């Protein structure tokens, strides 16, 4: 198929976690997520002190949808892309940046995290993750899922969706 | 193409409900949400207008469970069916693994069904995809309407070659809803490993 799947595993995955972790410390943000453009979470980290995050699936889907819409808007105006996006409320904020063509970086921060730092280190992390995503795309792992996977999955379909 | 997260040992599939405005796409997802037990589903997210028409998408994550050590998940989406929302509709198709085409049995929607299918082909083409590349299931919904058209007639305009599996449905009562979802899931899973 045309769009390559971004798969993180092993050393690359650990590096992604490392980058997210470091970014949390540098910015004081609560949560850092690497998301693919389809809205799936590839890797995520939470600050030790942070309260329980909202559902990550919903976060990732909405951020990916939003980013897709923003990119479409940029195209309409003849731009290749728009810069990073920041949403800020009274207490909470979001920082979203592109990590290459296939992934997005999301930082969720509160009022204690200085916006300047979030943007500075957010940008830096996005660049590092872009590099990483490109490596991952260039070296897709071999998937050893066979007919047994399909058979077992089918049994679960019966269980969840009924016979 | 499915998203595989080896580190977390997850495999994720994206299934999109497509079809003309008011055909019952959102109703399908609401029914599914209502029936799947807690713990096997996430929050349902609906981006809709005040009159409950889908504006961007509905989203529902489902957990199939663990298969050979891989957590297997389905992300269900609906598109906005109204013609003028095409820009958003196109975005939702990105990375799709399987499609449920929800057609309307009402006689005055026959043309809308055909146009929506044509529009889907065009939008897929923008991602370099053909309908033939992706598992598609046809759901002929609103079978409860007193003037519902014969299924053949709906199929004739949407899928004249009869390529897609067909399910009759009354989404408001849940009839055919899980049968449709199960079939598209089965087709999507059948491709795992063969081309991933
Ligand atoms: N009679 C009947 N009505 C249905 C059925 N399924 C859905 N409806 C009704 O049709 C209307 C539209 O349903 P939705 O599920 O919102 O339609 P949709 O396809 O999501 O529409 P858009 O979001 O505009 O694309 C609602 O009033 C539903 O209650 C059905 O099987 N029979
Ligand atoms: Mg809808």
TrEMBL record, chain A:
The Roadblock/LAMTOR2 domain, residue ranges: 16-109
SUPFAM superfamilies, per database record: Roadblock/LC7 domain (SSF103196)
Domain of life assignment: Bacteria
InterPro entries per record: Roadblock/LAMTOR2_dom
Protein name, entry field: Roadblock/LC7 domain-containing protein
Organism in which the protein naturally occurs: Thermus tengchongensis
């Amino acid at each position: 198929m045309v769009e390559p799947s971004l798969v993180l595993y092993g050393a690359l995955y650990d590096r992604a976690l490392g980058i997210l972790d470091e970014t949390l410390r540098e910015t004081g943000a609560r949560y850092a997520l690497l998301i693919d453009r389809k809205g799936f979470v590839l890797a995520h980290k939470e600050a030790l002190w942070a309260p329980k995050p909202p559902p990550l699936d919903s976060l990732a889907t909405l951020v990916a949808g939003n980013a897709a819409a923003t990119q479409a808007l940029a195209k309409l105006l003849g731009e290749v892309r728009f810069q990073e996006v920041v949403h800020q409320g009274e207490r909470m904020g979001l920082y979203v940046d592109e990590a290459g063509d296939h992934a997005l970086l999301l930082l969720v921060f509160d009022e204690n995290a200085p916006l300047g730092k979030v943007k500075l280190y957010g940008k830096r992390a996005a660049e590092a993750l872009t590099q990483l995503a490109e490596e991952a795309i260039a070296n897709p792992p071999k998937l050893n899922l066979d007919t047994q996977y399909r058979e077992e999955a089918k049994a679960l379909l019966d269980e969840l969706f009924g016979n | 193409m499915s998203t595989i997260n080896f580190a977390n040992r997850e495999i994720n599939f994206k299934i999109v409900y497509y079809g003309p405005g008011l055909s019952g796409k959102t109703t399908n997802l609401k029914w599914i949400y209502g029936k799947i037990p807690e713990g096997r589903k996430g929050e349902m997210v609906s981006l809709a207008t005040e009159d409950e028409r889908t504006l961007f998408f509905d989203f529902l994550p489902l957990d199939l469970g663990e298969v050979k050590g891989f957590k297997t998940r389905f992300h269900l989406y609906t598109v906005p069916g109204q013609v003028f929302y095409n820009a958003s509709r196109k975005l939702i198709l990105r990375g799709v693994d399987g499609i449920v085409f929800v057609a309307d049995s009402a006689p005055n929607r026959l043309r809308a069904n055909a146009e929506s299918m044509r529009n889907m082909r065009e939008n897929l083409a923008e991602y370099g995809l053909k309908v033939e590349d992706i598992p598609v299931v046809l759901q002929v919904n609103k079978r409860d309407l007193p003037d519902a058209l014969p299924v053949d007639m709906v199929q004739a305009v949407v899928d004249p070659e009869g390529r897609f599996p067909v399910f009759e449905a009354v989404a408001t009562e849940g009839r055919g809803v899980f049968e449709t979802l199960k079939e598209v899931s089965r087709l999507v899973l059948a491709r795992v490993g063969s081309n991933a």
